[in-house]
Amino acid sequence: MVDDIDELILSALSKNSRQDVKELWDFLRGHGHNLTEEEIESRIAKLEGDGVITGYTISVDMKKLRRRTMRMALVTFKTSQHLPKRIEGLKKYLADAPFVIFSGRTRGGYDWITVQVFLNEEMADEESDIYRNLFGDIIQSYEVYDFIPTKDPSFHALTHTPKEYKKFLDEWIPPFLGR
Predict the structure, then answer these.
(1) Is the Cβ–Cβ distance between 124 and 115 less than 8 Å?
(2) Residue percentage of the chain with pLDDT more than 90
(3) How far apart, in whole angstroms, are the C-alpha atoms of residue 113 and residue 103?
(4) What confidence tens digit (pLDDT) does each residue in 59-100 have?
(5) Is residue 154 left, alpha or beta, with left meaning phi > 0 and alpha meaning psi from -120 to 50?
(6) Cα 124 from chain centre
(7) Which of 45, 112, 122, 169 gets the highest tally of CB atoms within 10 A of its CB?
(8) What is the pLDDT of residues 107-140, one digit of tens each?
(9) pTM higher than 0.85, yes or no?
């Protein structure tokens, strides 16, 4: 089970996975925890061993690359006795696709949302056609939207701490709202 200290380590590593243990030690000390460097290394090894940390990645400044086409696909399914089996095929397709950032089942107006990135619009359109051909038997509606993000993707959003959340709100909430 991940505890508060592990969550702080994950938060720090999500901002910069190349931090050394000394930087993590400083970060944890700033949050009121006094661990040894060996304890921090042991916790990281355990997080890796337990499959909580599954790898380390880079952060890319998208403004320094040629423009990519980011596309969000919103899908609703037809009711069908074959739907559960076909969704398994859809999951595999999207899990294997190198252009998919996020994909998953939703509850609400849509049944499935996928966020994708393509090298250009032609590739995005080609994949949309293939997707609809492969899964058209279960698709009731299919909407796609291209967008230009104002913030680069960040996994830190998945691991921010309560302290970071509160600090952000304190900086942005006007005093008249009682904070």
Answers:
(1) no
(2) 57
(3) 6
(4) 776 667 667 788 999 999 999 899 999 999 999 999 999 999
(5) beta
(6) 20
(7) 112
(8) 989 999 999 999 899 999 999 999 999 999 999 9
(9) no
What is the identity of the amino acid at 96? D
Which residue reads 């938060």 in tokens?
11
- Paired tokens of 22: 């000394």
